[in-house]
Specification:
Helix content is about 20%, strand content about 30%. By secondary structure, the protein is of the alpha/beta class. The protein has three domains: about 60 residues, Nucleic acid-binding proteins (OB fold (Dihydrolipoamide Acetyltransferase, E2P)), CATH 2.40.50.140; about 210 residues, Rossmann fold (3-Layer(aba) Sandwich), CATH 3.40.50.150; about 100 residues, OB fold (Dihydrolipoamide Acetyltransferase, E2P) (Beta Barrel). The strands form four sheets. Strands 7-21-22-20-19-16-17-18 form an eight-stranded mixed β-sheet, sandwiched between helices. The termini are far apart.
Length: about 400
């Protein structure tokens, strides 16, 4: 049965949200690719106990907040899901999402600083791609939405243009390579050179075809790392190390944290957990007398060591260890702790260990606020309060948000 729904907000999944009240009950409906202000005729795709998933049948009225940007693969490719909404409105909706999640956890904090991305298109310097032999030729692209099938990409508004140019070249060539495999493109932020890692046996025909476009074809490890700079510090990275794919807005994030901490009263020592290549902690060695950096992933740690050595940082120590194991064996207290866990959040026991070190300031960086907000609440129960919150938009046109919460004792 079809229903008419007015879309009122955007859920954390990126789906538009509205209600059906036709039977005297207020039933939430979640509809992909809609915007607040849309009135849509929808049909149910899946019914849950407390809500309904649905899809658009027709528009009765389109929202003025819809974007004029178009992509021929949108709603087919699974790479982005907010391209239909004007970018400044996306930021507003993401802020409202964060406020809703905080409020639901019993945390009221209205002044969320909003740091948008400039540019908001073609910002990703790293992209995972899929290769597939179809209809007599090798094709390259991204996965179809809710599927493992490859979409033969011709355009994209989120991935760097140099990557899309090479994908298009492959798709026009009709290469007779009868393989299915995965690759990762990486752009050198300094000179826009390209690297491509292939999760496959060697493919000489593809290497020869791309020799004028790709600086490095990688199968195991990248011989020549790439780099970006923040002020006078160079950060080297390779294709297997974690970096923020939106390098431009990454710099804004680092500066936001630095601007706050340089005014902190206590700046003797800093602990940076899940530090990656040292993206934040190395920059903060300018502010703290001593910095301890902890990273468990081998390739990221290798780049961390290189970044400390090449930048001649003498007031820092680094450890290749799992965070919980390090915290259990480290007896030092810290003035400030940076906490930047993966999307899955912190391992059980980490929050308790951090509280035991009695930091004056905790900077919690989360790419999945749904996981981190409960942990923020745990800190607040132990005497911390929120000093500042910022939403850094690392992922324009995608529902993901990066939330930075600064807590003080």
């Amino acid at each position: 049965m079809e229903k008419t729904i007015e879309i009122r907000s955007i859920a954390s999944t990126g789906n538009g949200s509205g209600f059906d009240e036709s039977n005297g009950l207020k039933v939430p409906y979640f509809v992909p690719f809609t915007a607040p202000g849309d009135i849509v005729k929808v049909k149910e795709t899946k019914r849950h106990k407390k809500y309904v998933e649905a899809e658009i049948v027709d528009f009765i009225r389109k929202s003025p907040n819809r974007s004029a940007i178009s992509c021929k693969h949108y709603q087919i490719c699974g790479s982005c899901n907010l391209l239909h909404i004007e970018y400044q409105k996306q930021l507003q909706y993401k802020k409202e999402m964060a406020q809703f999640m905080l409020k639901r956890a019993g945390i009221t904090y209205q002044e969320i600083e909003l740091i948008g991305s400039d540019p908001d298109v073609n910002y990703r310097f790293k992209a995972k791609v899929f290769f597939e032999y179809r209809n007599g030729a090798l094709i390259c692209g991204f996965n179809e939405k809710n599927s493992n099938d490859t979409v033969k990409i011709e355009e994209c508004h989120i991935v760097h243009k140099k990557i899309i140019d090479v994908i298009n070249k492959i798709n026009r060539a009709g290469l007779n390579i009868k393989k299915r495999f995965i690759g990762v493109f990486l752009v050198n932020q300094r000179n826009r050179a390209l690297a491509l890692k292939l999760f496959s046996d060697k493919i000489p025909q593809l290497e020869e075809f791309l020799k004028d476009d790709i600086e490095q074809i990688i199968y195991k490890s990248q011989k020549k790392p790439y780099s970006y700079k923040i002020d006078d510090i160079s950060f080297f990275y390779n294709i297997d190390a974690f970096i923020q794919s939106n390098i431009q807005n990454n710099e804004n994030m680092v500066r936001f944290i630095s601007d706050y901490l340089q005014n902190a009263k206590n700046r003797e020592n800093l602990l940076d957990l899940y530090c990656g290549i040292g993206n934040i902690g190395i920059y903060l060695t300018k502010i703290f007398k001593e910095t301890i950096l902890v990273e468990g992933q081998a390739e990221s740690y290798k780049m961390l060591v290189k970044n400390l050595e090449d930048n001649k940082i003498t007031n820092a120590q680094c450890y290749n260890d799992e965070v919980l194991n390090f915290l259990k064996n480290d007896e030092r207290d810290y003035d400030a702790i940076i906490l930047d866990p993966p999307r899955t959040g912190c391992e059980e026991g980490i929050i308790k260990q951090i509280i035991g070190k009695d930091p004056k300031t905790i900077v919690y960086i989360s790419c999945n606020p749904a996981n981190s907000i409960q942990e923020i609440k745990d800190f607040m129960k132990k005497g911390y309060e929120i000093a500042k919150i910022a939403l850094i938009d690392m992922f324009p046109h995608i529902n993901h948000v990066e939330l930075i919460t600064i807590l003080t004792k």
